[in-house]
Design a protein that fits this description.
heterodimer, A: mainly alpha, Four Helix Bundle (Hemerythrin (Met), subunit A), 3 domains, 7 helices, B: 20 helices, 2 strands
Chain lengths: 188, 489
């Protein structure tokens, strides 16, 4: 519980830092801290594989890409100043607060509903708690992740590859310097 | 169960066509426009044929993630029709304005694949993936014309707001997963049989978020802000494509979701849908009245049409689904038909897209003007056109299910809409033509598209019985999840 509290506090703190820092590089560094503390939280739940993935994929690969991009586009400080329009800023805070409260209340309410229901429904022989339906024993191991990914979720997995292909073609089309054939209508 | 490849054969055909186009584009030179169109046409025909082969199969595959049922069957026909017409109307446009960009077709086919995945999946994860596979090519297509700055702006707006909407969608999926411990709709519907082991409040919150996410895609009223700018900024064939298929795909998912969650959806939720339908219709129709640009006008009209289909969603059940399916089919054909005439009239670089530019076209190009008149009347819902059959079915379904006020508001709205649709016709026939007139570009493929859409509009208006029977048959499978569930067990 103590470890959880520390990790959670670090995660929340660095999440706030990510969105308040002015320099993109320090935002990125705080994002690494955030990812690592999230990985710690996963490990605490016994999901070591997910924790490892979190560190390798997010804190490792994606962050390197982020920092590369930041370096490549070479922003100066005044290029992305804080938005001066005050009303939007405050409205943003208000809406964020409303959404946060909603999330907290809905979760709390649902937890209460679950605990009430579990008592009444335990007697029913068909009762199957949502958590039980996941195979608690081994759904955290790398083996079961692989098995789920390539057996049960093989189809979504394949669709993801198409998604990546679409993104690659899209990026190619957007980033292409000029049309392959020039404006005179003659092939070059 | 296992991997049931037969069930996704139409999807595979569409995807394979996309890959063939991608590779073919590298090797062909001069006659690329024609060849790419021909390959696209064959690919869509194969997909339709394979879909027809799956006509009577009611089945699940890939561990209950993919389903094939009459609803998915019907939607795949709609997508294929939309893509087919889009390919025909874009053929010359792409080779003229974009110098024959092969990726254009590839992106259209990948988007179509995404729609098919959405319409035939029984799992929220696959639905989300299908949505993204559909959306990403659309973001790119909106800004594919390099010379069009407005297109760039449209693509950016569409992308940012689309990503925002995807966030809502994922949050909703997470909440529903929290409530049921599963993202599979069939498994979720089984939960209701024992009426325990789920949380009503989480379901409600999750459904609201899903509704927001899909409301963005169907352009329902509070989430429609992107529609006019994107429809105006994107090139006309892309707009035609965007207004038909993706909308139908999002509706496909909504119909599926609401039929699954019927047991837990309270009256409050019906009220939400009711209000959403009314706002969407009113907002779309009232703002369409004051539009000068024809693409912007059709953008608001497409919001209004989403409102009519939302009536069908509110009604739900057998009648609602069959009316919604039939309406979406008609809207796809008529709307792409209208856009094909816009492409015909607008000239190079789409210079002429104001309604006032259409002055005097009725005498200069009588056949195109007649076709445009029919499309406009069909969108307004005049009797003897397809639009009337579709609207009639929706309003009858609403009245039979006791949503009398909803039907009255809908009828009032279609009366309002007559005003701005007739405005185009009036401009074509009763205004003096201007001095400078656009040089229209006529091509075989565009003519074929206009002809197909025209015949479809008239045929579905005069003899809609076959297709109404087909959509009734699809609608009678509204409890698809429990049917599939009994197959699994």
């Amino acid at each position: 519980m103590i470890i959880f509290s520390i990790l959670a506090a670090v995660a929340v703190f660095s999440a706030v830092m990510v969105i308040t820092r002015k320099s993109p590089i320090s935002s990125a560094i705080y994002l690494i801290v955030l990812m690592c503390s999230l990985a710690g939280l996963f490990a605490l739940q016994g999901a070591f594989f997910i924790a490892a993935l979190q560190v390798i994929v997010y804190a490792g690969a994606i962050m390197v890409l982020f920092i590369f991009v930041i370096m490549l586009i070479n922003l100066r400080d005044n290029d992305f100043g804080i938005d001066k329009r005050k009303i939007q800023k405050y409205l943003g805070f208000i809406f964020a607060a409303v959404i946060l409260l909603q999330a907290v209340f809905i979760t709390g309410w649902a937890m209460k509903e679950f605990s009430n229901e579990t008592e009444s429904a335990m007697s029913s022989e068909f009762y199957q708690s949502p958590v039980d339906s996941l195979d608690q024993e081994d759904y955290l191991s790398a083996e079961s992740v692989a098995e789920n990914l390539f057996m049960r979720f093989a189809y979504p997995f394949e669709v993801t590859s198409i998604l990546l292909l679409a993104a690659i073609i899209g990026a190619f089309v957007i980033a292409r310097k000029s049309d392959p054939i020039d404006d005179e209508g003659e092939e070059t | 169960m296992g991997f049931n490849w037969i069930l996704i054969s139409p999807e595979i055909a569409v995807l394979a066509t996309g890959f063939i186009l991608l590779i073919l584009d590298l090797f062909i030179g001069k006659s690329r426009g024609f060849l790419l169109t021909a390959v696209s046409f064959i690919g869509i025909m194969v997909a339709l044929w394979l879909n027809y082969q799956n006509y009577s199969i009611m089945g699940v595959g890939f561990q209950g993630i993919v389903i094939n049922d009459p609803i998915g069957f019907y939607f795949k026909i709609i997508f294929c029709m939309g893509t087919l017409l889009t390919v025909f109307i874009s053929s010359t446009y792409v080779s003229r304005e974009m110098k024959g960009m092969g990726e254009y077709y590839v992106l259209i086919f990948i988007a179509t694949f995404g729609m098919m995945v959405m319409a035939s999946s029984a799992d929220l994860i696959t639905i989300f993936l299908g949505l993204e596979v559909m959306s990403i090519p659309l973001y790119v297509l909106a800004g594919i014309h390099r010379g069009r700055l407005r297109g760039r702006e449209a693509a950016m707006k569409y992308f940012l707001l689309g990503a925002f909407a995807s966030g809502f969608l994922l949050y909703g999926i997470a909440l529903i997963f929290g409530a049921y411990g599963s993202t599979n709709l069939v498994e979720i519907s089984q939960r209701f049989l024992f009426s325990s082991g789920f949380s009503g409040i989480l379901t409600g919150a999750g459904m609201v978020f899903l509704l927001v996410g899909f409301g963005f895609k169907i352009a329902a009223a509070p989430f429609h802000m992107w529609v006019p700018d994107v429809y105006e900024g994107a090139t006309a064939p892309v707009t035609a494509f965007m207004s038909a298929g993706p909308k139908a795909a999002a509706f496909a998912v909504l119909f599926r979701l609401f039929s699954v969650f019927q047991p837990v959806i309270s009256d409050n939720f019906t009220t939400i849908l009711w209000i959403l339908a009314v706002i969407t219709m009113l907002w779309g129709n009232l703002l369409a009245l004051s539009q000068k640009n024809i693409k912007r006008m059709l953008a608001y009209s497409s919001i209004a049409h989403a409102g009519y289909v939302l009536i069908a969603l509110t009604v739900g059940g057998r009648d609602g689904i069959s009316a919604g399916l039939f309406y979406l089919l008609i809207y796809t054909i008529v709307n792409i038909g209208a856009f094909s005439i816009i492409i015909f009239f607008s000239g190079k670089n789409e210079k002429y897209e104001n309604i006032s530019d259409y002055a005097g076209f009725g005498y200069k190009y009588p056949f195109a003007a007649i076709a445009m008149t029919v499309f406009m009347l069909a969108l307004a819902g005049f009797p003897a056109t397809a639009g009337f059959a579709g609207k009639y079915k929706i309003f009858v379904a609403a009245i039979n299910s006791g949503f009398i006020w909803l039907a009255i508001i809908g009828i009032f709205n279609s009366l309002v809409s007559v005003w701005y649709y007739i405005g185009v016709v009036v401009s074509m026939y009763m205004k003096q033509p201007r001095d400078e007139s656009p040089t229209v570009i006529l091509s075989m493929t565009l003519m074929v598209a206009v002809l197909v859409a025209f015949i479809g509009t008239v045929y579905l208006g005069l003899f809609p019985d076959d297709w109404i029977a087909l959509s009734d048959w699809a609608g009678s499978h509204y409890s698809w999840a429990s049917i599939v569930g009994s197959l699994v067990r």
